[in-house]
Automatic annotation (TrEMBL):
Coiled coil region boundaries: 170-197
Subcellular location(s) of the protein: Cell membrane
InterPro entries in alphabetical order: MdtP/NodT-like (IPR010131), OMP_efflux (IPR003423)
Descriptive protein name: Efflux transporter outer membrane subunit
Source superkingdom: Bacteria
Origin species: Neoroseomonas marina
Keyword Transmembrane attributed: yes
Length: 466
């Protein structure tokens, strides 16, 4: 047994996990070469100061079905690790038996033989992990647990991003609806003036018809906005694990939503924080251990067994030395021919590792691209909000002047229609720019890892019902 344990030192090595890629020194879209930065707050959405967002995030973190399924997968991985670890330990079982036998006599007139037999035994077996195959299986299971933890983090960030995106879409649609209804009132007010002028002969039927077309166009834009509000409300309910009737959004002006500042820090920090990158890394590590386990399966298997117990035909003599039985054995098993199945399995695990290596590299590149895109989107959308604000203010001033002059009869209807259309478009464009800015800010938080930690996963797991 001691020799067997000493031979474990000959275990096959597990290939280290390396992507072969080097993280850049800074983000292209960063204002300057920033140094290390603190990770975002795990409750990063509080920085937007939006009560609806805080409430919906809390509901999604507690009731989202995808998140619950990810936590259940982590529980499965924990159990699989315990199973794999048990194979490194001796297997011991105990048994007891009582038997009564009765046989027939072959000689007429001779009574049949009958009797009882009592027994008890303790058996132990141990497979010597000479080539490290069992330890590789345990390491693969351990890496799978890590991957499951990062899987929970990936689902968590995806859920948080979906909630923020849906809510900001909804707020934007609500504000567009309010603006559209105001645009409709403006168009209807102009139509009323034209109808009054038609009665006294200072306007034509063509003028009235043109404005009626404008009113109809403005009215037709209301139903799609209502549908967008309803669709996003239903999506938020599904993200929180609720029925559509259970979610109501009070609404908030986009201009009143605070956009928190966030420093991206170094690309290497972001890659270390993002759970999707760490998930790909853990999957690759598990595949590397699987390759080692498959390679070890090509070598002989050494097993040690020992069995001892008591056996007697009388219960009162069961504990006497003469009733003792035992057996000790060692076995070595080597597959001679399996049609190439073991080598094919090794090739399969190697190919699987190459696939996961490509996935790991892709996750790194995608994370950097996601962060760069989010940084750029926030910068450009912030600039766009400033420009669209100036545009909307200028359009409002132009329309106010044109309406006053139209009432005074100093300009024609065409000028009013042009300034109306410009104002309507400018107001809607401003809302769209504000919505895009909020979505870009939320996307940047999730691109930076969202402040997610593995400890929060374990807390969520501890709070589940077994």
């Amino acid at each position: 047994m001691l020799m067997a344990f000493a031979l474990v030192g000959c275990a096959l090595p597990i290939e280290p996990v390396e992507s072969g890629l080097r993280a850049p020194e800074r983000f292209v879209s960063a204002a300057q070469a920033l140094g290390p930065a603190a990770a975002p707050d795990p409750a990063w959405w509080n920085g937007f100061r939006t009560p609806d967002l805080d409430r919906l995030m809390a509901g999604a973190m507690g009731g989202n079905f995808d998140l619950a399924a990810a936590v259940a997968r982590l529980q499965q991985a924990d159990a699989a690790l315990r199973i794999a670890g048990a194979q490194l330990l001796p297997f011991v079982d105990v048994s007891g038996s009582v038997a009564r036998t009765r046989g027939t006599s072959s000689t007429p007139g001779t009574p049949a033989n009958a009797g009882r037999q009592y027994g008890g035994s303790l058996r132990a077996s141990y497979q010597v992990d000479f080539w490290g195959g069992l330890r590789a299986q345990e390491q693969a299971a351990r890496d799978s647990v890590v991957a499951a933890e990062f899987g929970v983090g990936t689902v968590t960030l995806a859920t948080q991003s979906a909630v923020a995106t849906a809510l900001f879409d909804l707020l934007g649609a609500q504000e567009q609806l309010a603006i559209q209804q105001d645009n409709l009132r403006i168009a209807e007010r102009t139509l009323t003036i034209l109808r009054q002028r038609l009665v006294v002969g200072t306007a034509t039927g063509l003028d009235v018809a043109q404005q009626e077309t404008v009113v109809a166009q403005q009215r037709a834009q209301v139903p799609p906005l209502r549908q967008a509000i309803e669709a996003n409300t239903f999506a938020l309910a599904a993200l929180a694990g609720l029925t559509p009737a259970e979610v109501t959004i009070a609404g908030q002006r986009l201009a009143s939503v605070h956009v928190p500042e966030v420093a991206p820090g170094l690309p290497s920090e972001v890659l270390a924080r993002r759970p999707d990158v760490r998930l790909a890394e853990a999957n690759l590590a598990a595949a590397s251990a699987d390759v080692t386990a498959a390679r070890a399966a090509l070598f002989p298997t050494i097993a040690l067994t020992a069995e001892g117990g008591l056996q007697s035909i009388a219960l009162q003599t069961l504990l006497r030395p003469g009733a003792t039985i035992y057996g000790i054995a060692a076995s070595l098993t080597q597959t001679l021919f399996d049609g190439g199945a073991l080598r094919a399995q090794l090739e399969q695990t190697r190919a699987r590792r190459l696939e996961l290596l490509a996935n790991y590299r892709q996750a790194i590149v995608a994370a950097l691209q996601d962060t760069e895109t989010s940084l750029s989107a926030l910068q450009r959308s912030t600039e766009l909000v400033t420009l669209q604000t100036a545009r909307a203010e200028a359009a409002q001033r132009a329309y106010d002047v044109s309406e006053a002059q139209f009432r005074a009869g100093t300009i024609d209807l065409l000028t009013v229609l042009i300034t109306q259309t410009t104002l309507f478009n400018a107001r809607l464009a401003l809302v769209q720019a504000q919505t895009a800015r909020l979505q870009a800010a939320a996307a940047l938080f999730t691109a930076l890892g969202g402040g997610w930690t593995a400890g929060s996963v374990r807390q969520a797991l501890a709070g589940t019902t077994p």
